[in-house]
Amino acid sequence: MNTLELRHLRTLATVRDTGSLSAAALRLHLTQSALSHQVKDLEARLGQTLFLRKSRPLRFTPAGQRLLDLADEVLPRLRATEQELMRMSGERPGRLHLSIECHSCFQWLLPTLDQYHRQWPEVEIDIPEGHQFDALPALGSEQLDLVVTADPRPLTGVHYEPLFRYQSLLAVGRNHRWAGRDWVAPQELAEETLITYPVEHARQDIFTQFLDPAGVRPHRVRTAAMAVLMMPLVASGRGVCGMPNWALAEYLEQDYVCALSLGEGGVWRTLYAATREEDGHLPWMADFLRTARETAFRVLSGIRPASA
Questions:
Q1: What's any one GO cellular component for it (predicted)?
Q2: Which among 131, 28, 100, 115 has a CA at the least distance from the CA of 244?
């Protein structure tokens, strides 16, 4: 058995990048116990400790830092070689026309596209207008190549690749009577002004997963096009809004608003990348999905692996 494997380098690099075993486990789609066992097994093989477990921030030993240096040298070269081999397979240059059925997704999609373009400069990337919502049928007509959605539908020839899970939360002002509570019941929103994105209710989690099943309608609905416009309204007590946990993270860190779970058990959704089934083997498509998932876990707070 080899002492050192590529998975060990990936693991140590992820532990460094995330700062903890628990966060690294989420990004690597492992349980924390499985990740801890992997690290302990490697340390037993090497006969050396790789990092100080009780240090904050986490600190690597000289042996651990040497392996990190190796990871920084080997892993980028490995990925570049994989991409070069994909190109040598003879596939035609790719086209990636995509649509996002999610107002908040640009927070992680833009860095995804930036990194992907550096890796695959020959792929034509575009986000055509007019397909932001109900875009899935456009996959079949080849107007689009990929749709980011939380609402998969059974369509012939369409494959849904899970990216990550996220929690839908309710944002309220710091002086709201619910501030400091853990969760809110659907019926309580019957007397509230709900601030939403300007899209049909059937495309919004707070309606489809929370209010509609309980037969509840908010007292009033007003719209705002972006989160940056919603938050001042919420903070000033002019309404509440439902939003993915990653989109609220920066406002919660600034103590600008409070967040409550939708129901005692919470509302968790899975975000998918929908593609045509016949495109699954295309190397540039497979690498986009990998890049999107890796970028999401690097830049977003509070998300979980789709299998969690």
A1: cytoplasm
A2: 100
The phi-psi region of residue 130 (left if phi > 0; otherwise alpha if psi is between -120 and 50; otherwise beta) is left
Interatomic CA distance for residues 173 and 146, integer angstroms: 37
Structure tokens given for 191: 């007397």
Contact 267, 166 (CB under 8 A): no
Q: Could you tell me the residue range of the domain that residue 196 belongs to? A: 101-308
Q: Render pLDDT for 196-220 as a digit per residue (tens, 0 to 9).
A: 988 888 888 999 999 999 999 999 9
Distance, C-alpha 109 to centroid of its chain: 9
Give whole-number Cα distances, 141 to 87, 122, 283, in Å: 26, 23, 21
Of 234, 226, 225, give the one whose Cα is nearest residue 254: 234
The alpha carbon of residue 188 and the mean position of all alpha carbons in its chain are separated, in whole angstroms, by 29
Greatest CA separation found in the chain?
65
C-alpha distance from residue 222 to each of 52, 102, 166 (Å): 51, 18, 24
| Residue 94 falls inside a structural domain | no
DSSP 221-264: EEE-SSHHHHHHHHHTTS-EEEEEHHHHHHHHHTTSEEEEEESS
Q: How far apart are CA 116 and CA 111, in angstroms?
A: 8
Q: What is the CA radius of gyration of the chain?
A: 22
Contacts of 159 (CB under 8 A, 6+ apart): 274, 275, 276, 277, 280
Q: How many residues belong to the chain?
A: 308
Instruction: Give the pLDDT confidence of 15-53 residue by residue, as tens digits.
Output: 888 888 888 887 787 888 888 899 999 999 999 999 888
Count of domains for the chain: 2
Instruction: Indicate if the pLDDT at residue 242 is higher than 90.
Output: yes
Do 63 and 112 fall into the same domain?
A: no
**Which position has the token pair 């050396």?**
48
User: In Å, what is the CA distance from 24 to each residue of 18, 29, 243, 245, 293?
Assistant: 6, 8, 25, 19, 14
Question: Residue 50 domain-assigned?
Answer: yes
Claim to verify: residue 80 and residue 120 sit in the same structural domain: no
Q: Please state the rounded mean pLDDT for residues 185-191.
A: 96
